[in-house]
Design goal:
Elements: E1 2-11, E2 14-24, E3 29-33, H1 40-47, E4 55-60, E5 63-64, H2 69-78, E6 80-83, H3 95-100, H4 107-110, H5 116-122, H6 138-152, E7 156-160, H7 168-183, E8 187-191, H8 195-200, E9 203-206
Parallel strand pairs: 3-8, 3-9, 6-7, 7-8
Antiparallel strand pairs: 1-2, 1-4, 4-5
């Protein structure tokens, strides 16, 4: 589902990672680890088509990313789901409206998707659909972002420090939901510095840190 081949990303004169190659198959949950500044978030951005590699190729869902803006847009819409560090929510909209954003017009997929209320119940936010996102705590916003994933049902999930704003119980709930996605065949890639998150994954991709 995710294949990174000989990818290099530079920041100024330094290479965040050089000739990086790895793959994440269906049903795998893999951690990206490394010291601060090693480019974990940048790697997820490049896989998710929010940034570009300087060289090498990235394939997502059988499609070579970066071949066209339309291809990248369709990957983001139909294949990839995100859990951002900053939650990636529309703060002046309601919780329900944020979940509705990921519902496409493709009826065959929409029929299989959970309702907003069911997704919110799963993350412990039942009956919050009408609440403005701006009124929620950081931890609650992260759980709304997780509920959005549950509604979207992506086949590739990119999670950037998904437990950072959560207490231990909610952190375990997030990891349980991500593991359930992997159990249903999704490819899950998690950038993390948390040992418990790393240990919950099947294997790791370790980024060594920038080089000159």
């Amino acid at each position: 589902m995710i294949t990174v081949e000989h990818a290099t990303k530079r920041k100024g004169t330094r290479a965040l990672w050089d000739a990086l190659s790895f793959a994440v198959g269906p049903g795998e949950m893999v951690a990206v680890t490394g010291p601060s500044g090693s480019g974990k978030s940048t790697l997820l951005d490049c896989i998710g088509r929010l940034d570009d590699v300087d060289s090498g190729t990235i394939t997502v869902g059988g499609v070579v990313a970066g071949t066209s803006r339309r291809t990248d847009r369709l990957l983001r819409r139909d294949v990839i789901g995100y859990l951002f560090q900053n939650y990636g929510l529309v703060e002046d909209a309601s919780v329900g409206a944020n979940l509705d954003i990921v519902r496409t017009r493709r009826s065959t997929r929409s029929e299989r998707r959970p309702t907003n209320e069911a997704a919110l119940e799963t993350v412990g936010l039942g009956r919050r659909g009408s609440r403005p996102v701006a009124e929620l705590s950081g931890g609650e916003q992260q759980r709304v972002a997780l509920a959005r994933l549950i509604v979207k049902q992506p086949t590739v999930i990119l999670a950037d420090e998904p437990t950072a704003a959560l207490d231990d119980d909610n952190g375990r709930m997030v990891m349980d939901v991500l593991a359930q996605f992997a159990g249903r065949g999704a490819a899950v890639l998690i950038a993390t510095h948390v040992a418990a998150v790393r240990d919950a994954c099947m294997r790791t991709v370790d980024l060594p840190g920038p080089t000159d």
